[in-house]
């Protein structure tokens, strides 16, 4: 089977590693949580074909991080008109803590 035929969240074996598809060219290595680039035409072996029937409830952490950055930017834009520096500071601190938690999850290989 080719990598491009897998659905998001499908687990597969590639070059002796168990991975999970998390993007059109990306997969997370299950053992380390490291994201890998996989060619669309790469030959892979599905781990569990039943995964195709399950929805992907765990987006890649990079996608979560990007969504959080977009939300933070929009929130700051909306807040800018109100001129509340203390609230803006608190939002910035909360955003940075959430990014730290995402990065820690990436390092430990967790996606919860």
How are helices and strands ordered from N to C? EEEEEHH
Unreliable sequence segments? 50-56
Classification by helices and strands: alpha+beta
What characterizes the major β-sheet?
5 strands, antiparallel
How confident overall, as mean pLDDT?
80
Write down the overall geometry.
elongated
What is the terminal separation in angstroms? Answer: 28 Å
How helical, in percent, are the residues? 25-40%
| CA radius of gyration | 18 Å
Number of strands: 5
**Integer tally of domains:** 2
Largest beta sheet: what is the strand line-up?
Answer: 4-3-2-1-5
Strand fraction equals 15-25%
**What is the overall number of helices?**
2
In short:
The protein has 112 residues and is of the alpha+beta class. It has two helices and five strands. The chain has two domains: 3-47; 61-107.
Question: Would you kindly provide a written description of the structure presented here, covering whatever features stand out?
Answer:
- The chain is α+β, with helices and mostly antiparallel strands.
- It has 2 domains: 3-47; 61-107.
- The protein is built from 2 helices and 5 strands; from the N terminus they run βββββαα.
- Strands 4-3-2-1-5 form a 5-stranded antiparallel sheet, with no helix packed on it.
- A hairpin with a 2-residue loop joins strand 1 (11-14) and strand 2.
- Helix 1 (61-80) packs antiparallel against helix 2 (85-108).
- The protein is elongated.
- The two termini are 28 Å apart.
- Residues 50-56 have low confidence and may be disordered.
